[in-house]
Amino acid sequence: MSVPPPIVHPMTSLPSPATELSADEARRIALRAQGFLGAPDRRSGVRGVLRQLGAVQLDTISVLARSHELIPYARLGAVGRDTVEAAYWTQTHAFEYWSHAACVLPIEEWPHFAFRRRAYRTRPHWHHDLTPGTYEQVIKQLRAEGPLTATELGGAKNKGEWWDWSESKIAVERALMYGEVVCTERRSWKRVYDLAERAVPDGLLHDDLDDAECLRRLVRQAGEALGVGTRTDIADYHRIRGEQFDAVVADSGLVPVTVQGWEKPAWADPRALETTPRGRHRTTLLSPFDSLIWERPRTERIFGFTHRLEAYVPKPKRIHGYFAMPLLAGGRLVGRVDPAREGRTLVARQVSLDGPKAVAPMAQALLEAASWVGCDAVRVERVDRPELAAALTSAVA
Question: What is the DSSP string of 305-365?
């Protein structure tokens, strides 16, 4: 198997950047780093988005689409959903592992998660005991039969509740955490497991990097993906502990900056400071699991926008809806919508708008999303500002 070209991050000396940024400059840097400001890189497509972000979060919830499909859609527009899946999984361009959460990661980053694989080997195993030989039997079966789901390995669950995993499922998930097994794709939302020795290109397979080298790379990558961020912002991107961040940030290549209105120090990608971010702003609906907004304090600090996923909130206590998706327009978060699908109709069950100027971008985003998922009509059910309901309904008709 050929090895993909490495991601090269030159560490050449740069002119001293400005050490103080306005809040607006920081916002625009963040938007450009996340792929929402400037012309999208359509030649690199979905794989380019994955490499730029470094992690695309997975989640079981599917409303318009699953979150890992919504991420490239938000940046590239109506890229085909089959194209998204093929870009992630064909020819092992990506693997699934624990980063910010369960994430799709570029295969080039496999060596840099060695620190986490080693750490998992020293931790208690969820208090699950395995019958002797079970782990070895799972590895043997994968070696003999090739990529398999947990069901194909002998069943994913016992007869109890949904979290009552079978021994084969516990064993293969443990092997996944250790790095002996890789999740190479999702099939009907089931993980497909294969041996790392077979799935990971030879030039990337071996865990030759020490923890400090892994952490330096991931801190640098998170800083590049965010553009600018605080210690918490950057460490949270791959769920690195604060003390791990502190130990490597000085050698990561990120540069310290201050941002007006931010109470804590920040670091920035030096290349993000070289030019003023310019270009076309993307108008789109965002998955709540999009890395632009997945950390609530950062979203509030940058956009002045408070957002909370309410899927796990009891229905009577929800404010904005089950899967409210923020609306990004003009580089600002100007509303949100809780969408649903009924046949070939996209239903905007609950819409929140900042004001009259948000009507047109919300209509644009709803119509584009409807077309993307194969709907040919949009129906607006409720708007938080009743005086804007007629205008929005007319705009999506």
Answer: ------TTS-GGG-SS-TT-EEEEETTEEEEEEEEEEETTEEEEEEEEESSGGGHHHHHHH
